[in-house]
Write a structure and sequence with these properties.
Elements (H helix, E strand, L loop, with lengths): L2 H6 L6 E5 L3 H10 L13 E7 L2 E6 L1 H7 L13 E5 L3 H13 L4 E7 L5 E6 L5 E5 L9
Parallel strand pairs: 1-3, 4-7
Antiparallel strand pairs: 2-3, 5-6, 6-7
Length: about 140
């Protein structure tokens, strides 16, 4: 493949787009998770949450998704895909889990000291999408 062809088809990660049944509930979860969600997003059908470096998390209601995808299969969740967020400390993982589960979100995996050296937990958002929360890696705790 020529260098010009590779550049023409260069791929860059830009974000993740998930469908949500209730935008207000989704916005509440991701704000509690520490993301900066634009004001007024809870009343709309689509929002892009800036994650930095040109990357975003996009949330859309079924009405918006159906506007461009006639073959859309509808809302579906799977723990095969987990949105990953980093927190600043090991303690912050436990605190995030407690805050979100106290607010009524389903704790999918209580905080653990994971074999890869992070404190880690998973919580399901309002639509059942699993979100993992990581501490920074502590190499001395890798197994």
């Amino acid at each position: 493949m020529s260098e010009q062809r590779r550049d023409h088809h260069a791929t860059a990660f830009m974000g993740v787009h998930i469908a949500v049944a209730d935008m207000a509930a989704a916005v509440d979860f991701y704000r509690r998770a520490g993301l900066t969600v634009p004001d007024g997003a809870e009343g709309g059908g689509h929002v892009e949450i800036d994650l930095g470096d040109g990357v975003h998390l996009a949330l859309s209601t079924p009405v918006v998704v159906a506007m461009y995808d006639e073959a859309w299969r509808g809302l579906s969740t799977s723990t095969a895909s987990v949105l990953q967020l980093r927190l600043p400390t090991r303690e912050a993982v436990d605190e995030m889990y407690a805050e979100l589960t106290s607010a009524g979100y389903l704790g999918h995996l209580a905080p653990i000291d994971a074999f890869w050296g992070n404190r880690y937990c998973e919580v399901d958002d309002a639509d059942g999408h699993t979100v993992g929360f990581h501490s920074p890696t502590d190499d001395s705790l890798r197994a």
